[in-house]
């Protein structure tokens, strides 16, 4: 079923930089979608517009749950259910894996709440999320002591702790070696499958997209050039 729709949505940056031509796309519940394209194609712009980190300059984003993102309230509601994973994971390096997962969760609590000690249930949830990504034994390790792949998995645990209905991951494996990239993509795909979390990630490698995606949306020069299941695309070697 439809989870999020972009309708005639386009983005033009200041100085008239056209980053995304107005386009209409439905994202479906539990689907693992890869936005595929070269650098500058518009992947990050499309991805970030899905939770209004980039503000569309045309058209709209419509959440099945909250309606059109046309007020601060609906944007806030939608963001509270939409977790982000970044290329450079944006963890606090001097903090432990557990602290990072908890802090991500705190961002969605109010200020007063953040002054109180962590309730046991938050700690248990954070530990459970670290377990999901295979890092239960690193909970108390500072993230600057972890490998790049492990840091990205902490970023995924932090996203999971938000108990999202949607995960947006912007080039989540761009800084990782191939073996680690495959592990991280497999993990994101498994979480999507097991929890039914609608997942949209941007990538520039066709092989990974074909291997992990349910759906590939290809972007070039600020527009969608294909939208298909991976088996409908012929690999070119
Ligand atoms: P991709 O993620 O595929 O590399 P982007 O969405 O980052 O593509 O960029 C699409 C186009 O928009 C590029 O031409 C890029 O230079 C431009 N762009 C991206 N962000 C900004 C910005 N904040 N201001 C102006 N132009 C931008
Ligand atoms: P992953 O596949 O999760 O990225 P790696 O295979 O890269 O893990 O790392 C294997 C082990 O080496 C891990 O237990 C990790 O603690 C350690 N390690 C890797 N890189 C670093 C690093 N830069 N600093 C500290 N430890 C590291």
Automatic annotation (TrEMBL):
Transmembrane segments: none
Keywords: ATP-binding, Cell inner membrane, Cell membrane, Membrane, Nucleotide-binding, Translocase, Transport
Main location: membrane
Gene Ontology MF annotations: ATP binding
Tree of life domain: Bacteria
The keyword Cell cycle appears for this protein: no
Membrane protein topology class: Peripheral membrane protein
Subcellular localization, as worded in the UniProt entry: Cell inner membrane
Occurrences of domain ABC transporter (ranges): 4-237
Name this protein carries in UniProt: Phosphonate ABC transporter ATP-binding protein
Species this chain originates from: Marinobacter alkaliphilus
Gene that produces this protein: phnC
């Amino acid at each position: 079923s439809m989870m999020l729709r972009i309708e005639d949505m386009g983005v033009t940056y200041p100085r008239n930089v056209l980053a995304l031509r107005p386009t209409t796309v439905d994202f479906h519940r539990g689907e693992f979608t890869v936005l595929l394209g070269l650098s500058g194609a518009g992947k990050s712009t499309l991805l970030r517009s899905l939770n209004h980190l980039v503000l569309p300059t045309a058209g709209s984003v419509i959440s099945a749950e909250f309606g059109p993102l046309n007020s601060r309230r609906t944007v806030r509601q939608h963001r509270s259910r939409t977790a982000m994973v970044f290329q450079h994971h944006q963890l606090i390096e001097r903090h432990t894996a557990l602290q990072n997962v908890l802090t991500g969760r705190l961002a969605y609590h109010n200020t007063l709440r953040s002054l109180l000690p962590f309730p046991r249930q938050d700690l248990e949830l954070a530990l459970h999320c670290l377990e999901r990504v295979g890092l239960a034994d690193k909970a108390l390790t500072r993230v600057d002591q972890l490998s790049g792949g492990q840091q990205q998995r902490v970023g995924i645990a932090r996203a999971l702790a938000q108990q999202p209905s949607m995960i947006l991951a912007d080039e989540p494996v761009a800084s990782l070696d191939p073996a680690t990239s495959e592990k991280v993509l497999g993990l994101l795909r498994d979480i999507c499958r097991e929890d039914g979390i609608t997942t949209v990630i941007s990538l520039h490698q066709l092989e990974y997209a074909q291997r992990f995606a349910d759906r590939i949306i290809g972007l070039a020069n600020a527009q969608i050039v294909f939208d298909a299941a991976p088996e409908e695309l012929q690999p070119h070697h």
